[in-house]
Amino acid sequence: MWWQNRRTFLQSLGAAASALLVPRSLWARIRVRELDPVHLRAVADAVLPSTLGAEGTAATVDGFLSWLAGYRPGAERPHGYGSGSMEIEYLPPDPTPRWEGQLDRLDALARERFGTGFAGTTVEQRRSLLREEMGDGSISSIPATAGANHVGAALMAFYFGSPAATDIAYGASIGAGRCRTLDGVGAKPAPIGREERS
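Above: the chain's sequence. Below: its structure in token form.
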């Protein structure tokens, strides 16, 4: 229908205009909101695999915060070859304010129910609050990180979309998304040991 094409065109035009109006060099100065790393780590402890350990969880949170610091709303979304779509898509608005509000709500709920901030509760208490806030069983697939409705889902999306998670899932050093030389292009990925999986 012509009005749907027009609507899509206008949405794309608006996203492109917002990306062009704010140069990348200025975007970092404009973005003043940041997620509380302590609260974010408390969420990560509850939603990410426990086999990551403290070091792996902290590294994932650091990576997530770095990704968020470089996030630019309205930028062209990356798309792979053979995706089947010629349409250019753009990144959604900055999710930081929404996720910040969710972290604040989790902290307030924890204080109300358990008498301490969210980071001071047990992992099981955190999981109960997160199930309540995210909707237990309502997530049927892992969304794109930027499109996640909840900060807990965003952390899961960020981790499970990472090369490290792919390596662990296959038990091999695949290095998804990383550049490799042509020397070993035909070689089978080297298996990773149990200590590397945890």
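Residues 1-20, 24-32 have pLDDT under 50 and may be disordered.
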